[in-house]
């Protein structure tokens, strides 16, 4: 098979990129290791920045998002005693959209056939070849046969564990990483949210987050140590802990219910540079990871593919290779700012096992400063809604 762009991975980065390229008439094939149902079964991001909302709208795929998503004007930081509201609408003139990654992915998947976007699911042993040459290609196994796709460009949208980043020789790349000494235990339940906006809480016992997917479906997280297992946290224990950490106001309005999903994710910050090697271009989690505290992962994947689609469109439609050459630097400039914000909010809101009483006082003093300073709130708000492209 021959195509102009072969994409590895049909998560949000791969599907969004595929649609943006198809909208320009560029031929695209996506190969995905998992089944479509498996991809939709992963419970992940919940908050979309304006830039991500705009991308869905530009593709003409935003109708369900606008009908079912919840626009939020603000969110809260809690310090164990009070809620500090960050009024993002007043401070930035923008809002964020609560609409699950699962729903974004479902909308992108549903529109693929009618737009000529080919997605090959359950492709095993995907391998990238000759990425530094002008004739790169992919191989994979499907239904017992070996397949080959020749392309002008390969795009690695295959997440943190995929093969694309590893196809760049170590001598040509550098990576930067911070692994945090804790994870998030998440619970999804069909109960009304305890508050109409998100609450990020820093409690003596550790971080907690109250989020949602809709007016009748809640998503909560608590910070746990890396040794802990989901089995250590029966539903009642988790609800009790959330009630303590989120504080009395949230606890008074919290409805408990059985877990539809419960899982632990480790937290890390990671960047691999550059995001291009020859004819291989990386986007999304394949090139970088942020801890989920800033709600930036999916949104960074979206901004990467915005730049990448522009670069590949310039190449194919105007024979201009300059934007492909500039892609990595352009994307990384935004990535590093989102890394900084996510790292800073993670440091501010979590209990670190090696933190001492001084560190704790610094967190509380910073939260107190944020509560009293419009400038500090504005800085948080402009990062949370997403820096301009
Ligand atoms: P994905 O979604 O991991 O998709 C990669 C796809 O590649 C496939 N793949 C392969 N395909 C072929 N061959 C192989 N060998 C392959 N190996 C892997 C995988 O099956 C998959 O389908 O990466 P992508 O597209 O870059 O998207 C990134 C986002 O998924 C991620 O950044 C966010 O989910 C992060 N994140 C959040 N981001 C936000 O913007 N806002 C949030 O509120 C938010 N909350 C979260 C999050 C991530 C979380 N977890 C589970 C890590 C909350 C959590 C709990
Ligand atoms: C979520 O709803 O899953 C969510 C929301 C905000 C975050 C992280 C996760 O910062």
TrEMBL record:
MF GO annotations: 4-hydroxybenzoate 3-monooxygenase activity; FAD binding
GO biological process assignments: benzoate catabolic process
Domain FAD-binding: 2-342
Keywords: FAD, Flavoprotein, Monooxygenase, Oxidoreductase
Transmembrane segments: none
UniProt-listed Pfam families: FAD_binding_3
Enzyme Commission number, as recorded: 1.14.13.2
Protein name: 4-hydroxybenzoate 3-monooxygenase
Organism: Sphingobium lactosutens DS20
């Amino acid at each position: 098979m021959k195509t102009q762009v072969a994409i590895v991975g049909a998560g949000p980065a791969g599907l969004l990129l595929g649609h943006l390229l198809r909208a320009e008439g560029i031929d695209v094939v996506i190969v995905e290791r998992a089944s479509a149902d498996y991809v939709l079964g992963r419970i992940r991001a919940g908050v979309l920045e304006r830039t991500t909302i705009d991308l869905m709208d530009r593709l003409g795929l935003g109708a369900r998002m606008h009908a079912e998503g919840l626009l939020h004007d603000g969110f809260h930081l809690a310090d164990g005693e009070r809620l500090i509201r960050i009024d993002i609408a007043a401070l930035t003139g923008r809002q964020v959209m609560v609409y699950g990654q699962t729903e974004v992915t479902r909308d992108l998947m549903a529109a693929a056939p009618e737009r000529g976007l080919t997605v090959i699911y359950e492709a095993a042993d995907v391998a990238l070849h000759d990425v530094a040459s002008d004739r790169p290609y992919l191989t994979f196994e499907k239904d017992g046969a070996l397949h080959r796709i020749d392309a002008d460009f390969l795009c690695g949208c295959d997440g943190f564990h995929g093969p694309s980043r590893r196809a760049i020789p170590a001598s040509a790349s550098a990576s930067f990483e911070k692994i945090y000494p804790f994870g998030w235990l998440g619970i999804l339940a069909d109960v009304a949210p305890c508050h109409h906006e998100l609450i990020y809480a820093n409690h003596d016992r550790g971080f907690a987050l109250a989020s949602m997917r809709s007016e009748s479906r809640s998503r909560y997280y608590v910070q746990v140590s890396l040794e802990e297992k989901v089995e250590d946290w029966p539903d009642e224990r988790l609800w009790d802990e959330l009630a303590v950490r989120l504080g009395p106001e949230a606890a008074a309005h919290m409805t408990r219910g059985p877990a539809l999903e419960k899982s632990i994710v480790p937290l890390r910050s990671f960047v691999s540079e550059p995001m291009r090697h020859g004819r291989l271009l990386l986007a999304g989690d394949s090139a970088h990871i942020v801890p989920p505290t800033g709600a930036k992962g999916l949104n960074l994947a979206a901004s990467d593919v915005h730049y990448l689609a522009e670069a590949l469109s310039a190449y194919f439609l105007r024979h201009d290779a300059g934007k492909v050459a500039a892609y990595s630097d352009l994307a990384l400039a935004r990535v590093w700012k989102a890394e900084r914000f996510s790292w800073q909010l993670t440091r501010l809101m979590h209990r670190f096992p090696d933190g001492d009483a001084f560190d704790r006082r610094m967190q509380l003093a910073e939260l107190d400063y944020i509560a009293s300073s419009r400038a500090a709130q504005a800085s948080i708000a402009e990062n949370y809604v997403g820096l301009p492209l």
